Amino acid sequence: xxxxxxxxxxxxxxxxxxxxxxxxxxxxxxxxxxxxxxxxxxxxxxxxxxxxxxxxxxxxxxxxxxxxxxxxxxxxxxxxxxxxxxxxxxxxxxxxxxxxxxxxxxxxxxxxxxxxxxxxxxxxxxxxxxxxxxxxxxxxxxxxxxxxxxxxxxxxxxxxxxxxxxxxxxxxxxxxxxxxxxxxxxxxxxxxxxxxxxxxxxxxxxxxxxxxxxxxxxxxxxxxxxxxxxxxxxxxxxxxxxxxxxxxxxxxxxxxxxxxxxxxxxxxxxxxxxxxxxxxxxxxxxxxxxxxxxxxxxxxxxxxxxxxxxxxxxxxxxxxxxxxxxxxxxxxxxxxxxxxxxxxxxxxxxxxxxxxxxxxxxxxxxxxxxxxxxxxxxxxxxxxxxxxxxxxxxxxxxxxxx
Length: 402
Description:
It is a single chain. By secondary structure, this protein is α/β, with parallel strands linked by helices. It folds into two domains: 22-264, Type I PLP-dependent aspartate aminotransferase-like (Major domain) (Aspartate Aminotransferase, domain 2), CATH 3.40.640.10; 267-399, Aspartate Aminotransferase, domain 1 (Alpha-Beta Complex), CATH 3.90.1150. It has 13 helices and ten strands. The strands form two sheets. The chain has a seven-stranded mixed sheet with strand order 1-7-6-5-4-2-3, sandwiched between helices. The chain has a three-stranded antiparallel sheet with strand order 8-9-10. α4 (97-103) links the parallel β2 and β3 (108-112). 51% of the residues are buried. Mean pLDDT is 94; it is low at 2-11.
C-alpha cells in the first residue's frame, strides 16, 4: 500500500470572518503596548483560561498539561513532529492536515469516512489500513480526527467515535482530536458531541483552534490539552521544544484576547450562540438548494461548511468540460465569484466531483452587513442574503442543466 500522494497546494488563507466582538477588541487594545514576550506554550493567564474552558466541558485540566500556539497549524505540525511514526487521516479531512504531515516528514494515509458523517474514519477501514501499514513495515502512531468536522460540517455519532478510538488505543496510537467546531453545533441541545478524551484521557490530545469559533479568523490562536498520564508529559515537552525552535510564540495582545475569550464571559457566550444559530440557518438554506439541484450533501450540523458531491451530475458536467474536482473548483469559483475549493484539497481523489462550500460569503462583504445578519431574527429575510442564496442555487441548477 502506498502512502497518500501529494495533493495540490491547499487553500490556506482564511476567509473574511465575522465582525470582531467589541469586548475582545478592547482586551487586545488594552494590551497592545505590552512588550514582555509571551512564553513559548502560553503564559499562566492563557493556560489557566484554557483549563477553565475544558473543565466546563467535563475535562478537568491542569495548566501544566496545556500548550498554546499562534494557530492550529504550527501546533499540529509540532505534534506530528513530536509523536513520530505514520499518520492516519480521514478522507476527506481539513485541507491543512496532509501538508503538515508531509512537512513533518511523516507518511500519511487517508481512510474513508462512514456514510453517515465525516471527521472520523470508518472503523473497519481504519483497522484494515493499520494492518496494511504494519504489514509493509510502517509504524502507525497517530490518528487525527474531528468529530465536529471541517470540511463536511457533520458531527460524528458518539458510537462511531467510540469504536474508532477504542481501536486506535488498542493499537497503541495517539489520537489527536480536533475540536475546533464543537461549540458551533447548529442545535447544541439536539446534537450530541462526544470528545474522546472523556473516555481515554491518557491517549488523546485535544486540539482547539480559537480563530473563527472564539476569536477573529485573522488572529491566530490555538490551544492543546495533553494527557496527564502515559506519554502525555513527554509528548508535551517535545511539542514545546519544537515550538521554541521556530519561536512559535503568541503575540501578547492576541494571547490576552484569547484568554479573555476562553473564560467565556456573557458577551462571548452570546456571540457563540448567535454565530452557531446563523451558521445553522445558512447551512440549512444552502443544503436545501443543493438538494433541489440534485447535488448530494450531508446535512450540516456544525460550523460554516458543507461538502457537496456532484457525482450524480457527471454527464451534465462533462458537457461543460468539467471532469474532475480541479475543473469543478475553477468553474464554481468563477460562477460564484469566490473560491470554492475542490475535494482534491481535502484528500479526495481528483476524479471525485466534490467541493467544500462555505456559508459566510452569503452574508455580504462588509462588517455592517455581517453584523446585521448576526442581529437579525430572520437572516433569510435580509435582501442581500436572499440574493446570495438565489445566485448560489442558480449556479448549481445551471450545472444540472436546469
